[in-house]
């Protein structure tokens, strides 16, 4: 290649990276309303959260909310949907960080870390979900129980693999085990205080208890 042709190639303007389309004002307002709703539901619960509270936090008029959501139930449904998506995203991301060939125990430990990270992240959506789920209308609750069951599929797959590898005893009921683990992790939002232990340290403790119990290490069989 000649010097001239090389210089010409270097002088050629590089293609500009495509810019992300700007967020529309309506989309930004809708997101702001949802953020405000998660904030209010987390702190006031379902019954005591008013649309006026949400509008004030979102810096908009109460009447304007109906442009984006037909009812308070529609807002709640979207808040819960986002909360579930965030939880699934954290868990799946933690699992995906494991190397190829990781054991089921390693993948479950990673999933435990991912779940604790979102539950204890001080995220309004996740915290609101924890607080109001038992308070929402029955029809809405039934819908999200199905969503929760779908999201639990990743845990069922992990537990099945762990049993196949011998990491979970054959006489342990996997459904009970899954519910106990998720209940334990979700309840941590009620007692966790930053400072004494980090989120990952708590996750390590939970994984150790899950697989090995609280007793001292067993001596190897002779």
TrEMBL record:
HTH tetR-type domain: residues covered: 27-87
Matches recorded under Pfam families: TetR_C_24, TetR_N
Region (Disordered): 1-27
Protein's UniProt keywords contain Transcription regulation: no
Family annotation (InterPro entries): Homeodomain-like_sf, HTH-type_TetR-like_transc_reg, HTH_TetR, KstR2_TetR_C, Tet_transcr_reg_TetR-rel_C_sf
Biased composition (Basic residues): 14-23
Keywords linked to the UniProt accession: Coiled coil, DNA-binding
Feature: DNA-binding region: 50-69
Cytoplasm as UniProt keyword: no
GO molecular function: DNA-binding transcription factor activity; transcription cis-regulatory region binding
Annotated protein name in UniProt: TetR/AcrR family transcriptional regulator
């Amino acid at each position: 290649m000649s010097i001239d042709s090389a210089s010409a190639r270097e002088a050629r303007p590089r293609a500009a990276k495509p810019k992300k389309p700007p967020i529309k004002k309506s989309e930004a307002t809708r997101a702001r309303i949802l953020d405000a709703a998660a904030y209010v539901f987390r702190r006031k619960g379902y019954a005591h959260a008013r649309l006026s509270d949400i509008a004030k936090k979102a810096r908009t008029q109460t009447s304007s909310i109906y442009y984006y959501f037909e009812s308070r139930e529609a807002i709640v449904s979207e808040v819960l949907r986002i909360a579930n998506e965030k939880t699934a995203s954290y868990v799946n991301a933690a699992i995906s960080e494991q190397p190829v060939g990781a054991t089921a125990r390693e993948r479950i430990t990673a999933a435990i870390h991912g779940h604790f990270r979102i539950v204890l992240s001080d995220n309004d959506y996740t915290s609101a979900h924890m607080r109001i789920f038992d308070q929402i209308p029955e029809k809405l609750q039934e819908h999200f129980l199905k969503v929760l069951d779908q999201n639990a599929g990743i845990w069922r797959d992990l537990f099945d693999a762990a049993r196949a590898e011998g990491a979970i005893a054959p006489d342990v009921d996997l459904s009970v085990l899954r519910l106990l683990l998720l209940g334990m992790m979700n309840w941590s939002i009620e007692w966790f205080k930053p400072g004494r232990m980090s989120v990952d340290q708590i996750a390590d403790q939970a994984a150790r208890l899950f697989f090995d119990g609280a007793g001292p290490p067993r001596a190897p069989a002779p």
